[in-house]
Design brief:
The complex is a heterodimer of chains A (365) and B (311). Chain A has eight helices and 20 strands. Chain A has 365 residues and is α+β, with helices and mostly antiparallel strands. Chain A folds into two domains: 230 residues, Rossmann fold, CATH 3.40.50; 125 residues, Beta Barrel (OB fold (Dihydrolipoamide Acetyltransferase, E2P)). In chain A, strands 6-7-8-3-9-10 form a six-stranded mixed β-sheet, with helices on both faces. A five-stranded antiparallel β-sheet of chain A has the order 13-12-11-14-20, with no helix packed on it. In chain A, strands 15-19-16-17-18 form a five-stranded antiparallel β-sheet, with no helix packed on it. In chain A, a hairpin with a 2-residue loop joins strand 9 and strand 10. In chain A, helix 3 crosses helix 4. The longest helix of chain A is centred in the middle third of the chain and has 18 residues. Chain A starts with a strand and ends with a strand. Chain B is mainly alpha-helical and 311 residues long. Chain B has two domains: 53 residues, no CATH class; 234 residues, MetI-like (MetI-like fold, Orthogonal Bundle). Helices cover 73% and strands 2% of the residues of chain B. In chain B, strands 1-2 form a two-stranded antiparallel sheet. In chain B, helix 3 crosses helix 16, helix 7 packs parallel to helix 14 and helix 10 packs antiparallel against helix 13. The radius of gyration of chain B is 27 Å and the shape is extended. Classes of the chains: A alpha+beta (365), B mainly alpha (311). At the A-B interface, strand 6 of A face helix 11 and helix 12 of B.
Chain lengths: 365, 311
């Protein structure tokens, strides 16, 4: 992956009547990047993708692909191809005709045509499928054929509109890895739309978290999870515990906070700025909190009572009532030992503890 | 899983018996049986009013009419007579030609209409569909007479053209010829072509069209490679719905066709009526039916090879 900007979305808006589906979005995507647009349905991610494909045109703003302005380039002349959510496999054509659909414009001799289709079939691991009718394909196979069809002319950008949504969990996880490996091997820039945060985090180089037609944060998966920039992102990605707090003072790049029932805490501000007396938000991930029966020797700790337990196999979730905190605190613990599931035997008052490092400090809205 | 436990004797005793209960159980168990049961009223009616008359028609065609009574010895004379007199094959050929023209014109005019409703109309589609059926609210005869008024010697077109001074004498070639028959039939059968084509277009997944565009097709290419093949079932249905009934039509040619617009249906009608030669009428009907079947087969074969070529 190079840092060179390959796709540049500049101040793009799309209005459908009074609805601002996409609202003044500017994003730069690098060549060869696996970039995801993540957000709930209706956040504008699909509209943005369709504008990249040329299936919708921006109301305002401009999209550049490889330095070329796209506002006057129709979909069929763009150097991009798309994998549709429904796969859009042509029902009246067989696998070979589907995959080779876009090759017809190159007027290749038959042998070369067949060779290219065969090459794609090898790539998607469906060799020998040339003459299968489209209705004979399973969901996963349709997805692969759609992928091969979009990749056969080596587009500069591949757009994927929730392509894994219709697959079952096991197959989806397998396809996530395969798609990622495929992207590395072909070296094409992928723009991937999904509402599944796990999918976005697993596969992407960078993710734009979108909401209400705008993006909230664009970052690497690790940064999004470990250092969200605002409450919405912290809340949308994974599970997060929030506590109201007030900044006491800032010293040596550290922020001292008064987190009420949690006591006085120290956190690093990340890229955000804080000033003394400001209202802020302490956010801690459930897996970064430890449960113990006895008070830990040092570090941050607070006492509570387990309200509810959920067993998830590899880990368990606990919901802990802490005095002065409105919502129960979510804690996640790995079940390392079969005989001694974590949390078992914790009755009555328990202690929750966490390190300074676990604290994400956010601005209160 | 719990173990299977045999039902207690008193439970078995309560299973209802008797023919109705047994039939009901059989219905529940067999899909084929319940299917035929649902079909049976229609099936019965079809056997009575379709299959039986056709068998009778075939039988009749092998008999001979002797003035008032019918000679029931087997003969092929009626069929041979059809081929011996060139007028009959000519009339049948003309009927097929007129119907083919009607079908072609109707489908060509109906397709854009159906396409417009399916792809361009976004609101109130139902109103458009109802509007298409509006002509059917008046009787067929009235619509044919309307065409007579439009095309006639002193009709709307002629008097209009005279009024604006384009012609001095009324045009005589508008009415009482094959052209008038084709025009009237094409108008009368338009809805039967629009609706099946509309349904097949409406069924096309819009993302298929977007995919074709994304893969480099312009509008025309996309239409030929995706829209047209996928609407083929509707196109075929429309063609058959128009072609089959119009070959045998005798009302329209009778009213607007004149002598040159006579079709095979007119002859068959007169043979069963004034001509009083049922066996020969039956033979003509059977030959017409076979010709139509052959034409349809040819048409289906043609469309299939078109689809294969486009792919």
């Amino acid at each position: 992956m190079s840092d060179e900007t390959f796709i540049s979305i500049q101040g793009v808006s799309k209005h459908f009547g009074d609805v601002h589906a996409v609202d003044r979005v500017s994003i730069d995507i690098a060549r060869g990047e696996f970039f995801s647009l993540l957000g709930p349905s209706g956040c504008g991610k699909t509209t943005l993708l369709r504008m990249l494909a040329g299936l919708e045109f921006p109301t305002m703003g401009e999209i550049y692909i490889d330095g070329q302005a796209m506002s006057s380039v129709p979909a069929n002349h763009r150097p991009v191809n798309m994998v549709f959510q429904s796969y859009a496999i042509f029902p009246h054509l067989n696998v070979k005709q589907n995959i080779g659909y876009s090759l017809v414009q190159d007027k290749l001799p038959k042998a070369e045509f067949d060779a290219k289709v065969g090459e794609m079939l090898d790539l998607i691991k469906l060799p020998g499928y040339e003459d299968r009718a489209s209705h004979e394909l399973s969901g996963g196979e349709r997805q692969r054929v759609a992928l091969a069809r979009a990749l056969i002319r080596r587009p500069k950008v591949l757009l994927l509109d929730e392509p894994l949504g219709a697959l079952d969990k096991k197959l989806r996880e397998k396809m996530q890895l395969e798609l990622r490996a495929l992207q590395r091997s072909v070296g094409i820039t992928f723009v991937f739309v999904t509402h599944d945060q796990e999918e976005a985090l697993t596969m992407s180089d960078r993710v734009a978290v979108m909401s209400g037609g705008r993006y909230l944060q664009i970052d690497t998966p690790t940064k999004l999870y470990e250092a969200p920039q605002n409450r919405e992102v912290a809340d949308f990605i994974g599970t997060m515990n929030f506590f109201d707090a007030r900044v006491r003072e800032t010293i040596d790049g550290k922020v001292a906070i008064d987190a009420g029932p949690l006591g006085n805490l120290t956190a690093s501000p990340g890229s955000l700025a804080f000033s003394a007396g400001q209202n802020s938000l302490v956010a801690i991930r459930p897996e970064k909190i430890t449960i113990s029966s006895a008070k830990p020797a040092n570090g941050n700790a607070v006492q509570g009572v387990i309200d509810d337990t959920a067993y998830l196999g590899d880990r368990s979730h606990f919901y802990v009532q802490v005095n002065g905190v409105e919502k129960p605190v979510a804690v996640s613990a790995q079940n390392v030992n079969q005989s001694q599931l974590s949390g078992e035997g914790h009755q009555g008052q328990i202690w929750l503890s966490w390190s300074d490092d676990a604290i994400v400090l956010l601005n209160a809205d | 899983m719990t173990d299977h436990v045999a039902p207690a004797a008193d439970v078995i005793a309560h299973i209802p018996r008797g023919p109705i209960a047994r039939f009901r159980r059989a219905l529940m168990r067999s899909e084929a049986l319940s299917g035929y049961t649902m079909l049976s009223p229609t099936l019965l009616l079809l056997i009575l009013v379709m299959a039986l008359p056709i068998v009778l028609l075939v039988v009749f065609s092998f008999w001979t009419q002797n003035y008032t009574d019918i000679d029931k010895t087997f003969t092929l004379a009626n069929h041979i007579k059809f081929f011996e007199r060139s007028a009959y094959p000519y009339l049948l050929g003309k009927s097929v030609l007129i119907s083919s023209s009607v079908t072609l014109i109707t489908v060509l005019l109906a397709y854009p209409m159906a396409y417009f409703i399916a792809f361009r109309v976004t609101k109130h589609k139902l109103i458009w569909l109802i509007l298409i059926t509006v002509p059917f609210w008046t009787s067929y005869l009235l619509r044919v007479f309307a065409w007579k008024i439009i095309l006639g010697y002193n009709g709307v077109i002629n008097s209009g053209l005279i009024e604006i001074g384009l012609i001095a004498e009324p045009l005589a070639f508008l009415l009482y010829n094959p052209f008038a028959v084709v025009l009237t039939l094409a108008h009368a059968w338009a809805a039967f072509a629009i609706l099946p084509i509309y349904v097949s277009l409406e069924k096309i997944d819009r993302s298929l069209l977007e995919a074709a565009t994304d893969l480099g097709d312009g509008r025309l290419k996309r239409f030929i490679r995706i829209t047209l093949p996928l609407s083929m079932p509707g196109l075929i249905a429309a063609s058959m719905l128009v072609f089959i009934p119009t070959v045998g039509d005798y009302v329209t040619p009778n009213l607007v066709g004149g002598t040159s617009g006579t079709m095979i249906g007119n002859v068959i009608q007169s043979l069963f009526g004034r001509g009083n030669n049922w066996p020969f009428g039956a033979a003509l009907s059977i030959i017409t039916m076979i010709t139509i079947t052959a034409m349809i087969c040819l048409f289906l074969w043609g469309t299939r090879s078109f689809r294969r070529r486009v792919a």
